[in-house]
Design brief:
Elements: E1 4-6, H1 11-24, E2 30-31, H2 47-62, E3 65-75, E4 82-83, H3 96-106, E5 114-124, E6 130-141, E7 157-159, H4 172-178, H5 180-196
Parallel strand pairs: 1-2, 1-3
Antiparallel strand pairs: 3-4, 3-5, 5-6, 6-7
Helix pairs in contact: 1-5, 4-5
């Protein structure tokens, strides 16, 4: 399997994807997005479209295969928002805490707090083939942030069927096991093995 370039410029997401994939494809060489590649406008109407835009841009810029994902937090009381705008919920350049604060403000006083994380992971291979896998994690939004781990909305997302801890309160390995990103990239890894064979082959 040839090296694959990660499209994300987010260091937290880069580390997480590498950790998830190392469990399934321990020999896979992941390359960081080259510094000279400009920011890719996420203008798609869906998570899959945004992931495809990012993967194609990196594949074209480097001539290598590329991996990309897009993740959205869908909150039922907000009609599925922030969805594809999750990273920019509080505006362009918003910090994690800005987005969380806006989310909690929008849900203030509401007892209807069901939500889900949805991730689409996409591989654009050097020969132009594309592989796609989706992962979903159901849960609810906590009243206030808890935990020091994770990033993004993790401090306020409580997975369904768990012990009440937020994603930010879970050890990384436990989070990866259930997270939407973990499910999506493990599924994508299995597709890669079927298409191109084991690492080193």
């Amino acid at each position: 399997m040839h090296p694959l370039v990660l499209s994300t410029a987010n260091p937290d997401k880069r580390v997480e994807i590498a950790e998830i994939l190392s469990e399934v494809l321990p020999g896979l060489e992941l390359l960081e997005r080259p510094a000279g590649v400009p920011e890719i406008e996420e203008s798609g109407a869906s998570l899959e479209e945004n992931a495809r835009l990012k993967a194609r841009a990196l594949a074209e810029a480097t001539g290598l295969g590329a991996l990309a994902d897009d993740t959205g937090l869908e909150v039922d009381a907000l009609s599925g928002a922030p969805g594809i705008r999750s990273a920019r919920f509080a505006g362009p350049g918003a910090s994690y805490s800005d987005n969380v604060a806006k989310l909690l403000g929008a849900l203030s006083g509401s007892s209807h707090r069901s939500a889900r994380f949805r991730t689409v992971a996409l591989a654009r291979l050097a020969d132009g083939r594309e592989l796609v896998c989706e992962g979903v994690l159901d849960g609810s939004i906590a009243e206030a942030p808890r935990g020091q781990g994770g990033f993004g909305y993790d401090p306020v997302f409580v997975p369904a069927g768990g012990d009440g801890r937020t994603l930010a309160e879970l050890p990384p390995a436990a989070k990866h096991e259930i997270s939407a990103r973990g499910k999506a990239f493990r599924g994508l890894a299995r597709l890669l093995l079927e298409e191109v064979g084991p690492c080193g082959s």
